[in-house]
Amino acid sequence: MAMKLTTHQQEMLDGKLGDTKKFCMEKLVDFGEAIEAKEMVDLVLVLNCCPIYSNDRQNPETKKKLEMYDLGHSPLYDPIFAMKDAHVADDTGTQCGNDPYLAQFDKVEEKGYPWNFELPGKGSFKVDPEMVTGLKAGYDKLTEHGWLNWMSCQPQVNTCIPKMGEYCASSESSAAAYINTILGARTNRESPINTVYAAYTGCLPKYGTHLDENRAAKCIVELDDETRDNMQGAGDWAALGACLAEKAENRIMAVLNLPKKMGPTATKQIVSACSPGMNDPIMHLMGYTPESPTLEAAFKGKMPKNPERFTVTMDDVVEMFRHINNIAPAPGPERAKPVDIVIFGCPVATFEEVREVARLVKGRKVKPGVMLWVQTDTANYHMAHHYGDAQIIEEAGGKIFHQTCMCMNPVRHYPQGITIATDSFKYVKLGGGFGMAWIFGNPPALVNAAVTGVFTPSARWDYFAKPRHDRLASEKERPLYSQPFVD
Amino acid sequence: MDEKIVLTGIARSKGKAAGEAAVNRQRMGWAFNHVGNEDGIVLVPGADLQGKSIIGKVVVYPTVMGSTTGAISLYYKCTQSHHGPAAIICQKVHDIDISGAIAGGIPAIDALDQDPIVTIKTGDWVEIDAPKVGQKATVTITRKG
Which of A184, A193, A373, B67 is the most exposed place for a label (fewest CB within 10 A)? Predict the structure, then answer.
């Protein structure tokens, strides 16, 4: 065996620390050999997806439902659930938790949520109760095994925060990109097969973006000043992330001339472009990425004399909005496209995003027959209730919820032909092939769509959609830069 | 007369397999939103294979795109729903797909001596012999004359 193991890792492999650890170590060693790893790393965080437990997967009815709802991961847990000594490696400092999935457990029967709703004249959806029961059973088993109940795709923002230089195994791409880019800890976009085994052993072959040489920037992407000064709204940040990924053509990039202040929403939205837009879960956001105080550091000491350099302009961002809106284009008039569902929070909404929706919808009413959904994590869900934002959203006719990811995966089974509006590039990419139309916009325009039932481009969009020359000419007559834009 | 081309590459997941080639020139993944777990149909908008079944095919594509759930969905399609490919060939098999192919028990090959996207055509018959991970694998392509 080529991989060098520590005494503890060898003891796990030899079965001295129980059947489960031996089983999982064997799988990890197999993978390590395939990718020619030389050693393993100790993990502080494992993020994976909760299984749908079933004691009869081959029952034809159950099998059919599992094929509708399971991501494919659940059978991996079956041998572990059959072992009596299964417990995650929390005793050696590895915290393990899961992504959100089908539904909020305590509201499964309530209507108007992503797991149970009706769109008059268009159809309805209700998640299969057997699958929710199976998910809860899987969740309970994981809890017994020491998994933490965060059910969030962004635990690294507020729940389990790794520090610079620590190793993680995140099968959630957007979390992986945030962990590498913003926190300076190290993770691959990990295979959810490996994360099952890594949870019980606390270790993983060292490879990919664990290694310095695979974290190095290969090119530079620079924002022009107009772009730097005009990013506002989760849609903008997501589109900017998509532009960065596109410019760098699936290579790791160093990003220059970013705004001086980018909060958790901005950074989360930018880096979440990594799953739909690029394969390596790291960007060197100069001024933000801890391991990259200089360009030389971003290139890991190997910066070429003239690195490839690209520029992102507002025209690029506008073009990206058009591109995302054309992946599964919504029907209807250009300035009044009917919407059925408006969803915020992929990756799960920060408290800042929850509050923004509450502010925008306060005192207004969501149009009957339209869904306004705010998808967030457990911490922000309870904060929003504590501080009143949830009540504002609900009084307007919207819903806020946690433990749920609409694209993991109820959306596959939603009525065909409906239109969903979002500020998530990732959601449009994930759901673009399922037969629904998708609209991509910024929160103010999206809330307006929920209230009026139609998506109308904002004044800000109209301004930036003009060719640069016309837009700058119009500045002379009516300087928009000095005014707050009204979407 | 049939034309035969023999390529060599590196096995990232071992095994023997044979099947009709299905070539996708764009990056693709194996997650449920890219290839249906329940029917093996490619869903990716704009992909060369969109709307086509990959069941039992040797799927050829540049490298991965999209969700890490591609690993588990590949495993699921190969071992549970039996709607998976016979093998995968890439310019570079990404770690996500290596993991899915190993768990799914199908060969995964890359580092071929010719670009597989160019050399292999949809409809070719492809046989793979990949006895050991990290070692030489043989890909034999038969094209109907």
Answer: A184
Model pTM? 0.92
pLDDT digits (tens, 9 = 90+) for A294-305: 999 999 999 999
B73: annotated active-site residue = no
Cα–Cα distance list, A118 to A126, A223, A231, A343, A361 (Å):
9, 43, 35, 15, 22
The tokens describing A402, both together, are 């946690």
| Amino acid identity for residue A457 in this structure | P
DSSP structure string for B85-135? -SEEEESS--HHHHHHHHHHT--EEE--SS-HHHH--TT-EEEEEE-STTS
CA angle A379-A52-B45, nearest 5°? 85
Q: For B3-43+52-143, which CATH class?
A: alpha beta
Q: Write the secondary structure of A238-250 as one string of H (helix), E (strand) and C (coil).
A: HHHHHHHHHHHCC
Tokens (6 digits) for A113: 């949520």
Whether A186 and A169 have beta carbons less than 8 Å apart is answered as no
Q: Which residues, 6 or more positions from B63, have their beta carbon under 8 angstroms from its beta carbon?
A: A279, B27, B90, B91, B92, B93, B94, B97
Q: What is the mean pLDDT of residues A355-380?
A: 98
- Rounded-to-integer distance, Cα A481 and Cα A464, Å: 11
CB atoms B73 and A57 under 8 Å: no
Task: Say yes or no: ipTM exceeds 0.90.
Answer: no
| Cross-chain Cβ contact B38/A173 below 8 Å | no
Q: Nearest CA to B82 among B49, B30, B40, B50?
A: B40
Q: B111 — contact with chain A (CB < 8 Å)?
A: no
**B13 closest CB neighbour out of A34, A64, A173:** A34
Nearest Cα to Cα of residue B47 among B32, B68, B65, B74: B65
For range A215-225, the mean pLDDT: 97
